[in-house]
Automatic annotation (TrEMBL):
Protein origin, superkingdom: Bacteria
Keyword set, alphabetical order: Kinase, Transferase
GO MF terms, alphabetically ordered: kinase activity
InterPro entries, A to Z: Glyc_kinase_flavodox-like_fold, Glycerate_kinase, Glycerate_kinase_RE-like, Glycerate_kinase_sf
UniProt key word Kinase: yes
Organism annotation: Sporolactobacillus mangiferae
Family as reported in the entry's similarity comment: Belongs to the glycerate kinase type-1 family.
Protein name: Glycerate kinase
Listed PANTHER family: GLYCERATE KINASE
Database matches in Gene3D superfamilies: Glycerate kinase, domain 1, Glycerate kinase, domain 2
Length: 385
């Protein structure tokens, strides 16, 4: 069988290569063996960090930069992407309220706010977007998305009619949610929230208990924050008859999933499914002979909504073989073989330091891709043109 068309659809290799850079490196390696093949590069992501860049690169969109309110209330540089001729805005909440915006010593999950996320949404509306993809993940916050809503005009009031201060802890005093001043343009916008977690808003598997400690929450803080989000969910259920507590993913990004459901009337979907749809990956696989994917680390968790498996499952619907390249292979990586990946190859040549692996990622990826093509050709599947 002659190789005619190869689809290359990796995620980013964190801290070393964007998804597009990884795809270009894989292509450059394959070209050493198959110089005349057709290469279709589709940068991918799973809804978390890198989603904006991947979709902007895949669809030739543009990046919009803006200064917004950071998680600790100070100005911070942020960004989002516009694709589909500006009709779709792709926003990573972490660009405005991510944990990387706070140092280990300054993390404050009680008071951190998603206000800047709302400011990015408002900017996207100003640019004419009528569809928003909101990536949930990597947050410094635990406010249920209430800061985001405040930036968009919502008023959160205590029993005295006073507006609550920003941050998740203040929700313990929530009595009334006033949506009358919410930006009316939201009524004409379709919002899809993207995540790779299924945690509910509250309880032992909820936002505060599972993700709060990595944001600096002590056990006492976790209890307070869980009670505050429980209060938020009860007020929403009481006054608006909407369950924001139990839907899978409502606990993502410090409860921003729940906030998106309520304030933005959003759906919550696996991030990789949204990226596959928006990038047109399935259509781009038509008439392909081989699919190559990959990311920085592949392990037992990869089967739970991560890019390589999402790409592989898409490829299997077209009955295509799939090879995955990884910066490193972790415990349980063999599980991916039951989810559509046919071969799994690490790109590092042997024991190396993390700094060396990151520094040489492009070279290692090119070399491994070339060797992959040689092995494929040796098996008789890929004769050169």
């Amino acid at each position: 069988m002659k190789i005619r068309k190869i689809v290359i659809a990796p995620d980013s290799f964190k801290e070393s290569l964007t998804a597009l850079e990884a795809a270009e490196a894989i292509r450059d390696g394959l070209r050493q063996v198959w110089p005349n093949a057709e290469y279709v590069l589709v940068p991918m992501a799973d809804g978390g960090e890198g989603t904006v860049r991947a979709l902007v690169d895949a669809l030739h969109g543009e990046i919009i930069t803006q200064t917004v309110t950071g998680p600790l209330g100070t100005p911070t540089a942020a960004f989002y992407g516009l694709i589909n001729h500006g009709h779709t805005a792709v926003i990573e909440m972490s660009a405005a309220a991510g944990i990387e915006k706070t140092g280990p010593e300054s993390r404050d999950p009680l008071h951190a706010t998603t206000y800047g996320v709302g400011e990015l949404i408002r900017s996207a509306l100003d640019h004419g977007a009528n569809h928003i993809i909101l990536g949930l993940g990597g947050s410094a916050t635990n406010d249920g998305g209430c800061g985001m809503a405040q930036a968009l005009g919502a008023r959160l009031l205590d029993n005295g009619g006073n507006e609550l201060s920003e941050g998740g802890a203040s929700l313990i005093h929530l009595e009334t949610i006033d949506l009358s001043r919410m930006d009316q343009r939201l009524n004409h916008v379709r919002v899809e929230a993207a995540t790779d977690v299924t945690n509910p808003l509250t309880g032992p598997e909820g936002a505060s208990a599972v993700f709060g400690p990595q944001k600096g929450a002590t056990p006492d803080m976790v209890r307070l924050l869980d009670q505050a989000l429980t209060r938020f969910a009860r007020i929403v259920a009481r006054d608006y008859h909407i369950d924001i507590n139990s839907p899978p993913g409502s606990g993502a990004a410090g409860g921003l999933g729940a906030g998106a459901l309520f304030f933005l009337k959003s759906s919550i979907r696996p991030g990789i499914d949204l990226v596959i749809k928006e990038s047109g990956l399935e259509q781009k696989m038509a008439d392909a002979a081989l699919v190559i994917t990959g990311e920085g680390k592949i392990d037992g968790q990869t089967v739970f909504g991560k890019t390589p498996v999402g790409v592989a499952q898409c490829a299997k619907r077209a009955h295509l073989p799939v090879i995955a390249l990884a910066g490193s292979l972790g415990e349980g990586c063999e599980a991916v073989y039951d989810h559509g990946i046919d071969a799994l190859l690490p790109i590092v040549p042997g024991p190396v330091s993390l700094d060396q692996a990151l520094h040489h990622a492009r070279f290692n990826l090119i070399r491994t891709a070339a060797n992959t093509a040689r092995l494929w050709q040796l098996a008789g599947y890929g004769q050169s043109f």
